[in-house]
Amino acid sequence: MEGKMKLHYGDMTDSSCLVRIIGMVKPTEVYNLAAQSHVKVSFELSEYTAEVDGVGTLRLLDAIRACQLENSVRFYQASTSELYGKVVEIPQKETTPFYPRSPYACAKLYAYWIVTNYREAYNMYACNGILFNHESPRRGENFVTRKITRSVAKIAIGSLDCIQLGNLDSKRDWGHAKDYVEAMWLMLQQNVPQDFVIATGEMHSIREFVEKSFKHIGKTIIWEGTGLNEVGKEESTNVIRVKVNAKYFRPTEVVSRLF
Ligand SMILES: C[C@H]1O[C@H](OP(=O)(O)OP(=O)(O)OC[C@H]2O[C@@H](n3cnc4c(=O)[nH]c(N)nc43)[C@H](O)[C@@H]2O)[C@@H](O)[C@@H](O)C1=O
């Protein structure tokens, strides 16, 4: 890909630049992965998240229409398992009703429906991929998987003593981003546009993720205490390696995400 890729400056809050880029590139496939995608941050930047993740999706769809490409472009929308939030049905499927639990999920709910509406109103080939968590070494450092793995690596080389985390009992269905990107592409290669849920079907807690990561550097973690006073100690030395910090709790958390 290197050398064949052309990058353009763009911003989901700037309609005119979206129209200009779409008009210039004349794409055949558009993948809308643009977002303020951090759930906890969305409680602090709620209006910005709505602008970028919600109305930004509308701007991009309208840019395609403004360039009269709505009958040729195939459009992928990065919808999310966060839409299920406080789940109303187990397992969740394409027909499960949504119950968003954060400004991020509310913005994504608008995006989900505007994509569905443009598909029905203008006969666009537009799909929602409802993806559960997908991780890789490229994951941002303030998401829990990278935060834990980076911190454990630092502990292994002696440049950090202890990790501070939020809700240890929260569970997630983590898949690999590479597989999920292939699924995104496949969604745009079908005969008719459809929405799909993508997940591994397996959930694990943050606590398990911590234990496994420490095992990787040859350390066993033993849990002591409860709530904000809970700590994870290194079994062989009794050194505290994990602390709970309320700063990382969310005002509302998804309740369960059993798939
Ligand atoms: C599908 C969905 O996937 C992602 O959203 P997320 O699941 O919120 O991802 P995360 O890695 O920030 O949190 C996972 C869990 O881990 C808990 N947790 C504990 N302690 C810390 C902690 O210290 N930091 C963080 N970030 N989380 C923590 C936290 O409370 C939560 O229960 C985004 O891609 C999003 O865009 C998306 O659509």
UniProtKB/TrEMBL annotation:
The keyword Lyase is assigned to this record: yes
GO molecular function annotations of the record: GDP-mannose 4,6-dehydratase activity
UniProt GO BP: 'de novo' GDP-L-fucose biosynthetic process
EC number in record: 4.2.1.47
Catalytic activity line of the entry: GDP-alpha-D-mannose = GDP-4-dehydro-alpha-D-rhamnose + H2O
Pfam family, one: GDP_Man_Dehyd
InterPro entries given in the database record: GDP_Man_deHydtase (IPR006368), NAD(P)-bd_dom (IPR016040), NAD(P)-bd_dom_sf (IPR036291)
Matching CDD domains: GDP_MD_SDR_e
Stretches of the chain forming a coiled coil according to its record: none
Enzyme class: lyase
Residues annotated as domain NAD(P)-binding: 2-255
Pathway(s): Nucleotide-sugar biosynthesis; GDP-L-fucose biosynthesis via de novo pathway; GDP-L-fucose from GDP-alpha-D-mannose: step 1/2
This protein's UniProt keywords: Lyase, NADP
Cofactor(s) it depends on: NADP(+)
Family recorded in the similarity comment: Belongs to the NAD(P)-dependent epimerase/dehydratase family. GDP-mannose 4,6-dehydratase subfamily.
Protein name: GDP-mannose 4,6 dehydratase
Organism, as annotated: Acyrthosiphon pisum
Lineage: Eukaryota, Metazoa, Ecdysozoa, Arthropoda, Hexapoda
